[in-house]
């Protein structure tokens, strides 16, 4: 298979080590570090099962994406695949939904950064930190893709090393009874205080909204295909590592945290990692974890600026956005698209100033709908592609999704279930109110972009 068309003016400046570390670090974000606090409070230890089950579905979605990427690795993958296998409207909608998803996700991350900084400086308003973080990362993304990649490499390295260290330290406390906390830490906490399902199976289902948000961003490596040095080698390895990352950083971390202290001591609005180590008396470790979760927020916001800039440029190349956004700077980055995206992200600063106590819940629920659409489109595209390749109409991918098409149908059913569950939460229900508005705006935008004059111009 040829890689023709993958060179879109971008510099192939992302090294294999950067993409590999981004893939590992991409599994560690504020959805786990901040969102898990509220999820533990409402679901108890059952949250572990929620992360494990959802993790299997995420792996299937990533394998579907991997099959498409090995068929044709392009940085504008989601839009290209949607147009080719579903239709032009699907490509238009997917591009704009994915752009919007990362815009609101970056809002969530700068919200989280504001909360984390208050751990050390409680008098600094959330919106001030949000503004500083957005400004610094915006400037970093304007310089070059190499700077973005290096930022992500070290952000991810800090997260990975520290979380592995925290898990090892926690296991030492639990297994060997190290320190004064050792006599209270036990795996029995997983089934005490009401059992593994203290609020019933329904609470584990309702937790899936925050769980799926925690996994948001795993598909980002698909956008790196056009800027990776060797996409056909590094991308399959990164995708296959998804299950290991989920097992260690989500399931493993939650087992340790909920064994250190009873689940009843975790609450929304605070990091469960910080709460656990504060509770066992290791206050220095809690400070370190607080720094790491701040790093996670910065990492995700950095990825958001990167992905929105590339996606907006892709839309412009497809004439689904103003042509000015399709230009690259002398440094081979989509500066105009990055700038426009960052300006919209600045709305998150206003949200933090107006409703700081609700900002994270509102924003994450809207972002979750966006990522559910994107993941669903990826699976649908893989199903169509597989049918066509099996008929000999297209070359077969060298990295095929296991169990297709049934695993694809399973993933789609699971995503539909999560959409339904969004309606059961007071805060998450906001996403369902916003979704029809977004759909109308995107539909109107599509009709305008496909007026006879615009169609003739594209031709």
UniProtKB/TrEMBL annotation:
* Keyword Transmembrane among record annotations: yes
Q: Which UniProt keywords apply?
A: Amino-acid transport, Cell membrane, Membrane, Transmembrane, Transmembrane helix, Transport
Q: What's this protein's name?
A: Amino acid permease
Localization recorded for this chain is:
Cell membrane
Q: Which Pfam families match?
A: AA_permease
The way this protein sits in the membrane is described as: Multi-pass membrane protein
Q: Could you tell me which species this protein originates from?
A: Amycolatopsis tucumanensis
Coiled coil spans: none
Assigned protein family:
Belongs to the amino acid-polyamine-organocation (APC) superfamily. Amino acid transporter (AAT) (TC 2.A.3.1) family.
Segments crossing the lipid bilayer: 21-40, 46-66, 96-121, 127-148, 160-181, 201-221, 242-261, 281-301, 335-355, 361-385, 406-424, 430-448
């Amino acid at each position: 298979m040829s890689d023709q068309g993958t060179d879109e003016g971008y510099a192939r400046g992302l090294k294999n080590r950067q993409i590999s570390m981004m893939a590992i670090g991409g599994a560690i974000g504020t959805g786990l570090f901040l969102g898990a606090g509220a999820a533990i409070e409402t679901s108890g230890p059952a949250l572990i099962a929620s992360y494990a089950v959802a993790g299997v579905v995420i792996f299937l979605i990533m394998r579907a994406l991997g099959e498409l990427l090995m068929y044709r690795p392009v940085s504008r993958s989601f839009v290209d695949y949607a147009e080719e296998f579903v239709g032009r409207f699907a490509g238009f909608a997917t591009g704009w939904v994915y752009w919007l998803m990362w815009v609101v996700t970056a809002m969530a991350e700068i919200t989280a950064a504001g909360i984390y900084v208050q751990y050390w400086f409680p008098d600094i308003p959330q919106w001030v930190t949000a503004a500083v973080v957005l400004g610094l990362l915006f400037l970093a993304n304007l310089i070059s893709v190499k700077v973005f990649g290096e930022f992500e490499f070290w952000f991810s390295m800090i997260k990975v090393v520290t979380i592995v260290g925290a898990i090892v330290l926690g296991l030492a406390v639990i297994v060997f009874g190290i320190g004064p906390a050792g006599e209270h830490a036990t795996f029995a906490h997983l089934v005490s205080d009401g059992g593994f399902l203290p609020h019933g199976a329904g609470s584990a289902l309702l937790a899936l909204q925050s769980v799926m948000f925690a996994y948001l961003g795993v598909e980002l490596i698909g956008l790196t295909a056009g800027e990776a040095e060797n996409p056909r080698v590094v991308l399959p390895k990164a995708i296959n590592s998804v299950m290991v990352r989920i097992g260690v950083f989500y399931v493993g971390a939650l087992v340790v945290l909920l064994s250190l202290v009873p689940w009843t001591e975790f609450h929304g609005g605070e990091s469960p990692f910080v709460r656990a180590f504060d509770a066992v008396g290791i206050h220095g470790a809690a400070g370190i974890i607080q720094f790491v979760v701040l790093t996670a927020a910065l990492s995700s916001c950095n990825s958001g600026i990167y992905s929105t800039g590339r996606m907006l440029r892709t839309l412009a190349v497809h004439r689904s956005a103003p042509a000015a956004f399709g230009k690259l700077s002398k440094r081979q980055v989509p500066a105009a698209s990055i700038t426009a995206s960052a300006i919209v992200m600045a709305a998150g600063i206003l949200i933090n100033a107006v409703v700081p106590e609700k900002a994270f819940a509102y924003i994450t629920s809207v972002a979750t709908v966006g990522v559910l659409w994107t993941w669903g489109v990826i699976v649908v595209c893989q199903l169509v592609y597989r049918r066509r390749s099996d008929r000999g109409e297209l070359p077969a991918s060298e990295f095929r999704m296991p169990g297709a098409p049934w695993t694809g149908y399973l993933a789609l059913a699971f995503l539909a279930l999560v959409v339904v569950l969004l309606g059961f939460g007071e805060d998450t229900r906001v996403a369902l109110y916003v979704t029809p508005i977004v759909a109308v705006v995107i539909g109107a935008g599509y009709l305008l972009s496909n007026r006879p004059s615009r169609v003739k111009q594209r031709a």
